[in-house]
Design a protein that fits this description.
It is built from four helices and nine strands. By secondary structure, the protein is of the alpha+beta class. The strands form three sheets. A four-stranded antiparallel beta sheet has the order 1-7-4-5. The longest helix has 23 residues, at 139-161.
Length: 164
């Protein structure tokens, strides 16, 4: 299914800042950068004046193709794409991130990710057939499967995390 069929909206971040121009001070606001690790979180910053990007979305960085589900509001560095859908939640978001990362492997420095290229990209998602014979994303199924995978992973890690 085309990425554009999965998400309601795909757009560039409107709450971006260069790190060197961030207002100083402590705060409780996430600042995301092009990093591949830590959910792209580069810092916790003071309020910057602009409204933050709301959470419950998937982010993709144009330079590094870092792809993460973002549960909480945030500010970003430049070149972040924000993907949203009214039925997106943490469970389905984590599954979509996995599939989007797989799709990102075709992009490289010579053939970088862009909105135009993403709009033509297909990803595998669970679908259901509607009454007219068309297919649509099975958001309930994706959420249930994501929840089941998370429970399975947590159970497999539990023995290693128990303190004797």
């Amino acid at each position: 299914m085309l990425i554009t069929d999965v998400f309601d909206s795909m757009k560039a971040s409107r709450a971006w800042y260069d790190k060197v121009h961030l207002k100083p001070g402590s705060g409780r606001n996430l600042y995301l950068s092009q990093t591949q690790g830590g959910n792209s979180i580069a810092d916790i910053v003071a309020n910057q004046g602009k409204e933050r990007e709301p959470g419950n979305c998937v982010t993709i960085t144009l330079k590094t193709q870092a792809t993460f589900y973002q549960p909480a509001p945030f500010y970003t560095a430049q070149n972040f794409l924000i993907f949203r859908h009214k039925n997106l939640d943490e469970q389905s978001g984590l599954l979509l991130v996995t599939e989007l990362r797989r799709a990102m492997k075709k992009f490289s420095w010579g053939y970088g990710v862009s909105m135009a290229r993403l709009e033509k990209t297909r990803i595998m998602v669970p679908v259901i057939t509607d009454a007219n014979g068309g297919t649509t994303v099975d958001w309930d199924g994706m959420t249930a499967y994501g929840r089941a995978l998370r429970v399975r992973a947590e159970r497999s890690m539990a023995p290693a995390l128990e303190v004797a």
